[in-house]
Specification:
Layout lengths: L1 E6 L2 E4 L4 E9 L7 E6 L6 E6 L5 E3 L7 E6 L4 E6 L8 E8 L3 E3 L3 E6 L1
Parallel strand pairs: 2-11
Antiparallel strand pairs: 1-3, 3-8, 4-5, 4-9, 5-6, 7-8, 9-10, 9-11
Amino acid sequence: QVQLVESGGGLVQAGGSLRLSCAASGIFVRINVMGWYRSPPGNERELVATITSGGSPNYADSAKGRFTISRDNVKNTVYLQMNSLKPEDTAVYYCNVETTRPYWGKGTQVTVSS
């Protein structure tokens, strides 16, 4: 079993920044891909960014140029630095990690005011 603890969400004005963190703990051999997804109000969950164990990132078009994903393989933690935030970034953000199967965090609310 893998437990995920997310932190860093909150309320910020448009143009501001937030940094999300997600720490994985439990029993696992290796974490493969780690990532962030989000559920905007009234919409389905969508990809924000993922990163492989080797550090190769992948971003949704909406995140390119504004968000940066990174990970610390020693701490089993994935980060999402979000800059130039827009009201349309408002969503619940979920951490996802894949070991032998995918695991999801409980989500952290990000609200961007105009």
